[in-house]
Design a protein that fits this description.
Helices cover 27% and strands 27% of the residues. It is of the alpha+beta class. Strands 1, 4, 5, 6, 12, 13, 14, 15, 16, 17 and 18 form an 11-stranded antiparallel β-sheet that branches. The chain is globular, with a radius of gyration of 23 Å.
Length: 466
């Protein structure tokens, strides 16, 4: 593994907000975590970004993009199925404009395909309840790609790979790339222009995403991190471009609107922050996006429900005890994970240029470790904020604690976490002295955290006894 490189970006202005300085302690800890996990999993190359609302963006990199060339934070990586969230935003904006209704059936735009029912609705495509077979499950797809690394596929050609449906529309849930290929075809017909132009006009330009493209459609002068894989029959990770003469063109044109966006981690983090903040689609559309279909559990019990909305996943109480919104992605040579914390609003993007690390490993080890820094370390320099005086008593506590503080603006948020970082109690502080029940806590050690404007500004360890 090449020596890690480090980049820190502070935005002077971002969507009308002024940003403070991210602390050296905060950024150093993030970089340490990035390096440690990447070295543990021997990840070839990684670009990561952490956006702290109202404060700034950290960008960190590790490893190589190609033999002899380190990853830099301005390089583009494939984001795979994260593309679907962008397409969902476009379709929801078209509905806001009165150009389409998500409950319209796709038969108006998609006709003549025996395995694609025209009675399926756009919404059923967007939340994967259409029952459509995913064309990427067809072995003929891999054979076609291996036969010609340079072939540029049209979306209509890819539809020929769709086999018989899995179930009747609306009766079940199954993830299918065919759904968002169809969404892209419909967007193109409604707007009467290529989808990449609509993406540029509706999302890239308004949100300042200057390093985001729909690959094979948009030209770019940016450097693209080479894809590394074992999927062409090798036992070792190989740079597919330098070793095999592979081109991204074939698979990315086949991925199309289901998975062909390339971008930097910084752009990805900004996109997710702006989306959840209601700055890309309006609040009514966000609420529709958040109509989740239950698809499973991330652990034992209903409190860790996994839901899929319109191009977005929700993991309840999953990331160090916090609920997150996310949509990772995979492509040949690229795997990524991203998230927005529903509690703090922090957005995290992790992009890699190899496909031998799984999405769950990337989420559970690297992304979760970066996220834990964001909830345990203050992102700002001590000199930039007035340090509050936090007092918690009695300590040890039995049935309650009294939180006493001064030198802080209200309201502030107080949370109690176990020693694994899971948030167990949250409470809004509106007065300088507040009593909080601890009866639901089992005996043990806990961390009391005080947050203001999304930043941890004070903490104290307490012991609960009975």
């Amino acid at each position: 593994m090449k020596k890690a490189l480090f980049t820190l970006s502070i935005l002077a202005a971002f969507t009308g907000q002024s940003f403070a300085q991210l602390s050296g302690t905060y950024t150093s800890r993030l970089q340490f975590v990035l390096d440690s996990v990447c070295n543990r999993y021997h990840i070839k190359g990684t670009s990561a970004a952490v956006l702290v609302p109202g404060i700034g963006i950290w960008k960190g990199v590790n490893g190589i993009a190609s033999p002899g060339h380190n990853v830099t934070s301005d390089m583009l990586f494939g984001i795979g199925s994260n593309t679907k969230t962008y397409m969902s935003c476009i379709m929801l904006k078209l509905q806001e404009m009165g150009k389409v209704n998500l409950d319209d059936t796709i038969g108006t735009w998609i006709q003549g395909w025996p395995n694609i029912s025209g009675q399926i609705t756009i919404r059923q495509c967007m939340n994967h309840t259409s029952g459509l077979y995913s064309y990427t499950s067809n072995a003929d797809m891999n054979d076609s790609i291996l036969a010609d690394f340079t072939r540029i596929w049209k979306p209509e050609e890819v539809l020929s790979l769709v086999k018989a449906p899995l179930f009747a529309p609306g009766t079940n849930w199954s993830y299918s790339n065919t759904n968002y290929l169809i969404v892209g075809i419909i967007i193109k017909q409604i707007m009467a222009q290529p989808v990449n132009i609509t993406l540029r006009d509706f999302i890239y330009t308004p949100q300042g995403l200057h390093n985001t493209i729909l690959f094979t459609a948009d030209a770019t002068t940016a450097t693209i991190a080479d894809p590394w894989s074992r999927n062409l029959g090798t036992t070792d990770l190989e740079d597919l471009i330098t070793t095999f003469g592979y081109s991204n063109n074939a698979l990315f044109s086949m991925a199309s609107t289901a998975g062909a966006i390339m971008q930097t981690a910084e752009d990805n983090a900004i996109f997710w922050h702006q989306l959840i903040s209601g700055n890309i689609i309006n609040n009514t559309s966000v609420n529709q996006m958040f109509q989740f279909v239950h698809i499973g559990y991330s652990g034992v019990g209903a409190g860790r429900d996994i839901g899929y909305g319109l191009g977005i996943f929700r993991y309840q109480n999953y990331m160090n005890g916090h609920t997150i919104y996310t949509h990772g992605g995979t492509n040949v040579g690229y795997v990524n994970e991203n998230m927005v914390d529903s509690v703090t609003g922090v957005a995290i993007s992790v992009l890699t240029n190899q496909d031998s690390i799984s999405n769950p490993d990337l989420m559970n080890d690297l992304e979760k470790a970066l996220h834990k820094v964001t909830i345990t370390v203050s992102p700002t320099e001590v000199a930039e904020v007035s340090k509050p005086n936090l007092s918690v008593y009695p300590n040890p506590a039995s049935n309650y604690i009294v939180v006493s503080l001064d030198n802080i603006s209200h309201p502030a948020q107080l949370s109690i976490h176990d020693m694994n970082g899971k948030c167990l109690i949250t409470h809004e502080i509106k007065e300088n002295k507040t009593t909080i029940s601890t009866q639901e806590l089992i005996p043990g050690l806990y961390i009391v955290q005080l947050m203001n404007n999304g930043a941890v500004i004070a903490d104290q360890k307490i012991q609960v006894i009975r």
